[in-house]
């Protein structure tokens, strides 16, 4: 079955979504991420959606769920690379993605995670 | 319908003569189309239109020019309209080009009618309705092309008049000037978001010092843009809200939803610097 | 007028298929990227509804021409239980069951025209249209 790969980068997990996800794949990702966070004790999750051209309410809620579950497991989530067209559509749709931090790209996302964890921005993850 | 295939055959027989007469007609009436396109192109287009007319008539239908039999004619006319629009012909002038075929065509019909007044009447009616429809079609295409050109020019002007400025590393400013309508605001905001991605700005300052009034729709667009930028990871500050605009916003009951505002662009810049961990100090002398 | 393109919605993969086809047709009509994204997102919401609440159904994609205007219409049809209170379903924040809203109010904001008919026990028909 198709799965979206999750990379471990130090204390962080990095997920790059590059396919058009159907609901089942989104659910699988949500479960996989939650398991990996618990397994690895990761303190941060970076979800890179710079290749994603559509975020609807299901995917939006998946992201919000990931962030909520991560927080319960003491990890911060940052969603990076949202495209302008997607952002504009989400705003129109009325989805605010509560509890999710966002950043323009992976680098800034990492900096944000480090700051959130109380490190100086240059500490290696 | 036998009548139309007769017309088609008639055109086929006298195509050369008809073309010459039509070109003479265009030249002597001082047709703008001929002058703008030049004799050679006018001749080519006219020939193609007559051929297309023949094809259309052969296909049988004269009630409408939407069918596949008239596709050739529509193509020729679209070409003329578009070329004309690019070179400054008005939609009316392109229509006259089509209508100027009436005189030589009717002359041909009269010559070949051989005294049958009823048949001549029918034929003239059919052809006049046809040419009218083709002329209207030409006008519509010309109008649409002009609209597209105008839109493109407007977009270019818009880009020139609302530059996104990089104030500092990671800090962008969008100084808006002039009245904002809903459409312009939308375009400008979309381009701001694109620039944010391109330059990787953490903070964007939208300055509306130069905007005299703001209505509900525009205010809503501004807020949506700020929210969209936030979703992308960039904070926005709106600066330069004049007292009148502040009044309008309160009066209209627009909820700024926690959007940070500053009175002047300078204040907004200072705030942006502070947020990005910087400050401005004096150099020791 | 060309025949509408019919896409069956019976499995989750079909929701993605609907997105891709609507995206393709919107691209052909040269919608702006933002307008395309809005239309495809609305289609995704409604396709999912047809599957999840309507028990499956179909989407019909049509290109519209009105004078010089061109547009894209997608109609979602299912023979599911129907929506008892449409006004309530259109309200933001309305949810049934597991917290996933029907998304109708949101979808409506993403398009130029939104038509909905629903008969309890018979099914639902929703048509969304965007003009270029």
Provide a brief overview of the structure.
The complex is a heterotrimer of chains A (125), B (285) and C (132). Chain A has helices spanning 23-40, 57-72, 84-93, 106-116; strands at residues 6-9, 12-16, 44-48, 76-80, 101-103.
Query: Please, what is the oligomeric state?
Result: heterotrimer
Number of strands of chain A: 5
Tally of contiguous helical segments of chain B? 11
Overall strand count of chain B: 5
Taken together, the total number of domains of chain B comes to 2
Structural class of the helices, strands and pairings of chain B? alpha/beta
Q: Radius of gyration of chain B, Cα only, in angstroms?
A: 31 Å
Textual characterization of the structure:
The complex is a heterotrimer of chains A (125), B (285) and C (132). Helix content of chain A is 44%, strand content 18%. Chain A has 125 residues and is α/β, with parallel strands linked by helices. In chain A, strand 3, helix 2 and strand 4 (76-80) form a beta-alpha-beta unit. Chain A is globular, with a radius of gyration of 14 Å. Chain B is an alpha/beta fold. Chain B folds into 2 domains: 2-156, Globin-like; 165-275, Transcription Regulator spoIIAA. Chain B has a 5-stranded mixed β-sheet with strand order 1-2-3-4-5, with helices on both faces. In chain B, strand 4 (235-239), helix 10 (243-252) and strand 5 form a beta-alpha-beta unit. In chain B, helix 3 runs antiparallel to helix 4 and helix 4 crosses helix 7 (117-161). The radius of gyration of chain B is 31 Å and the shape is elongated. The relative contact order of chain B is 0.08. The model of chain B has no long low-confidence stretch (mean pLDDT 86). Chain C has a single domain, classed as Histidine kinase-like ATPase, C-terminal domain (Heat Shock Protein 90, 2-Layer Sandwich). In chain C, a hairpin with a 2-residue loop joins strand 2 and strand 3 (69-78). Chain C has 132 residues and is α+β, with helices and mostly antiparallel strands. Classes of the chains: A alpha/beta (125), B alpha/beta (285), C alpha+beta (132). Chains A and C meet through helix 2 and helix 3 of A and helix 1, helix 2, strand 5 and helix 4 of C.
């Amino acid at each position: 079955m198709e799965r979206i790969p999750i990379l471990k980068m130090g204390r962080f997990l990095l997920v790059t979504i590059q396919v058009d996800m159907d609901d089942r794949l989104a659910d699988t990702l949500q479960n996989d991420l939650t398991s990996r966070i618990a397994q690895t004790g990761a303190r941060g999750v970076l979800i890179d959606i710079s290749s994603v051209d559509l975020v609807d309410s299901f995917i939006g809620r998946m992201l919000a769920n990931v962030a909520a579950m991560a927080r319960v497991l003491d990890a911060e989530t940052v969603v990076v690379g949202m495209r302008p067209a997607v952002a504009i559509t989400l705003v129109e749709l009325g989805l605010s993605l509560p509890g999710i931090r966002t950043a323009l790209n992976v680098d800034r996302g990492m900096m944000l995670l480090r700051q959130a964890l109380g490190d100086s921005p240059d500490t290696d993850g | 319908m036998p009548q139309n295939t007769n017309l088609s055959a008639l055109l086929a027989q006298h195509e050369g003569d008809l073309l010459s007469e039509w070109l003479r007609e265009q030249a002597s009436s001082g047709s703008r189309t001929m002058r703008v396109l030049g004799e050679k192109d006018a001749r080519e287009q006219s020939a193609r239109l007559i051929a297309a007319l023949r094809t259309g008539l052969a296909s049988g239908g004269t009630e409408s020019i939407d069918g596949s039999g008239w596709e050739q004619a529509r193509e020729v006319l679209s070409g003329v309209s578009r070329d004309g629009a690019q070179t400054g012909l008005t939609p009316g002038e392109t229509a006259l080009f089509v209508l100027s075929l009436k005189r030589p065509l009717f002359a041909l019909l009269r010559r070949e009618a051989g005294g049958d007044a009823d048949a001549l009447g029918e034929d003239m009616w059919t052809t006049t309705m046809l040419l009218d429809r083709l002329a209207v079609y030409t006008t519509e295409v010309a109008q649409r092309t002009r609209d597209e050109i105008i839109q493109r020019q407007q977009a270019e002007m818009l880009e020139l008049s609302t530059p996104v400025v990089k104030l500092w590393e990671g800090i962008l400013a969008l100084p808006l000037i002039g009245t904002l309508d809903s459409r312009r605001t939308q375009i400008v905001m979309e381009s701001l978001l694109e620039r944010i991605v391109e330059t990787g700005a953490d903070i964007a300052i939208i300055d509306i010092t130069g905007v005299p009034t703001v209505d509900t729709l525009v205010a809503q667009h501004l807020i949506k843009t700020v929210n969209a930028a936030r979703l992308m990871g960039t904070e926005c500050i709106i600066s330069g809200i004049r007292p009148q605009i502040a009044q309008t916003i309160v009066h209209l009951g627009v909820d700024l939803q926690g959007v940070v505002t500053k009175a002047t662009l300078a204040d907004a810049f200072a705030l942006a610097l502070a947020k990005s961990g910087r400050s401005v100090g004096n150099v020791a002398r | 007028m060309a025949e509408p393109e019919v896409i069956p919605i019976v499995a989750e993969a079909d929701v993605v298929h609907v997105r891709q086809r609507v995206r393709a047709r919107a691209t052909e009509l040269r919608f702006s990227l933002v307008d395309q994204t809005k239309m495809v997102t609305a289609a995704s919401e409604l396709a999912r509804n047809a599957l999840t609440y309507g028990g499956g159904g179909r989407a019909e994609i049509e290109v519209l021409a009105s004078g010089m205007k061109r547009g894209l219409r997608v109609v979602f049809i299912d023979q599911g239980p129907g929506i008892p209170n449409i006004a309530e379903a259109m309200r933001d924040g309305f949810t049934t069951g597991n917290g996933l809203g029907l998304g109708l109010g949101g979808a409506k904001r993403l398009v130029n025209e939104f038509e909905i008919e629903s008969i309890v026990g018979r099914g639902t028909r929703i048509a969304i249209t965007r003009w270029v």
